Amino acid sequence: MSTSLLLVDDDRTFSSLAASVLTQEGFRVLTARSLHETRAALAREAPDLVILDRRLPDGDGLTFLPELRTLVPGAVVLMATAHGDIASAVEAIRAGARDYLSKPVELDDLVLRARRAAEDVQLQERLRRAESALEGRHRMLVPRSPAMRHTLQMLERIATSPRSPVLLLGETGVGKEVIARHLHVLREEQGPFVHINCAALPDTMVESELFGHERGAFTDARAARRGLVEVANGGLLFLDEVGELPLALQAKLLTFLDKGAFRRLGGSSELSSTARVVAATNRNLTDEVAAGRFREDLYFRLSVFKVDIPSLRERREDVLPLAESLVAELCAELGRRPVGFSVAARERLERYPFPGNVRELRNVLERALVLEGGPNLELEALAPRSGGPAQTSDPHAFVVAGPPPPLEEIERRYVRHVLERMEGRRMDAARALGISYPTFLRRLGEE
């Protein structure tokens, strides 16, 4: 979704030209040439970004700024002031403007400042959504199982340490991001929670995403950009799938963990950030170290506090409460009235092993809410199927009559069972099984 921008300036030539340039940059631009027109525009729509001139025909933009902040409290404001009028610029910042522009405004500078402001708007929206999601997930962190209670008690103790790294370990889908967010809340952070999936980015982009870049650092670097380490200053940076980081970048991450300092890509100035790093992986990092794919010194630095998150199979007591919380959250998202579970559905939830953990549980519930129309969910997808052990939903039910099959055949059946439960997603199935992808293919009989 494009960022909406209200440009308030009485210079018709500049306003028309700036609106055209900003539109080409992807902004949805509204214009106003007076405070009267500005109030009318704000009555129709609340923009994400406002560029406000100081001198207008019917009043002073600086005097209007407090009213503007009341009318659109979430908007980012840039104040345009006369060249050299530093006092007005400082006063505007104190009154709530994010930045100021000196007039006459250079279009390149206008576009650069607008882009930066748009990044802040998008970040605020992501944070708002994350906080909203966290409210719904908070109930999931009131566990009944001893294993999960022990994990959360450990987090409470870790939260008292201001900046030491934390390494979250566990199978795919156990809820590592939820745990990281919980730690962020426990610390009562003033800074943001920032999440990056290291496996989702090409190696060439990870450094820029983490540490930012200066203008001209590479071909498409048309403007300087803050990295997530910088954005997370004062808060928490969650590095999901940290085992996927390229070796060259692992050294730079280690430097940041040791000194709190970093350089943007293409930059020479040393910057600092107090972001706490929480890393997560479902890989065995000691094996990765032995194979030369992960730095040993980084592993030791990340694992100052190492937290093993139990799988859903290890905390059966939490399945029903989790399912109830997830259904309530999903009903709110889908605009449905709250629903419950039939007796049969509760039994199925208690029996099913959930190799995909909390993520699989959520997917099953979401599918049931869409496909089942009754007041109580039946969860037929979790019902045991006929047709032999290769199709059963119970991973322990691979005992057959007659001579026992070779262990290799039992393994192949179970691997296929997990692949089916992960809906054909082979990488996820391999991670759920805790084996490498080549090993997964070999046990599946495809290598």
Molecular structure report:
The modification 4-aspartylphosphate is found at residue 53. This is Sigma-54 dependent transcriptional regulator. Keywords: ATP-binding, DNA-binding, Nucleotide-binding, Phosphoprotein, Transcription, Transcription regulation. The chain is of the alpha/beta class. Helices cover 47% and strands 14% of the residues. The chain contains 18 helices and 16 strands. The chain has helices spanning 12-24, 35-44, 61-71, 86-94, 107-137, 146-158, 176-186, 203-211, 228-231, 247-259, 285-290, 296-302, 319-334, 343-351, 357-371, 407-421, 426-433, 437-444; strands at residues 4-8, 28-32, 49-53, 55-56, 59-60, 76-82, 99-103, 166-169, 193-197, 236-240, 261-262, 271-272, 276-281, 305-308, 340-341, 376-377. A five-stranded parallel β-sheet has the order 2-1-3-6-7, with helices on both faces. A five-stranded parallel β-sheet has the order 9-10-13-8-14. Helix 6 (146-158) packs across helix 7 (176-186). The chain is globular, with a radius of gyration of 27 Å. The model is unreliable at 132-136 and 386-401 (pLDDT under 50).
